[in-house]
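Recap from last week: sequence in, structure out.
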Amino acid sequence: MSDFTPLPLQPHDEAGPVFDEPWQAEAFALAVQLSESGLFTWKEWTETIGDEMQKARDGGDPDLGDTYYEHWLRALERLVAEKGAADPASLAERKESWRRAYLNTPHGQPVDLSAADS
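Predicted structure tokens:
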């Protein structure tokens, strides 16, 4: 085991941090893929996520680990918009479609985006 010490609410196992929900792993993988494909550098990524985390702390986030991937997602959305890969309105529209689809998909079933308009 490493010297890993989790934050109070950070999901983890004996080996270290883990993803608490599938969307967190997907956001992580997307950030890595977009960086590897050249949309942004990893240095830009670390600066942006650091800035998003600082904004959250400045806004009262107690930084217990449970909101880490929310910061990750905000940083990813910010970079995608700044780099022109998607505009903020399109991102907001897609998030709303996913929210509606989630609410209209029966429990235990995969989220079906066609359910967004049900």
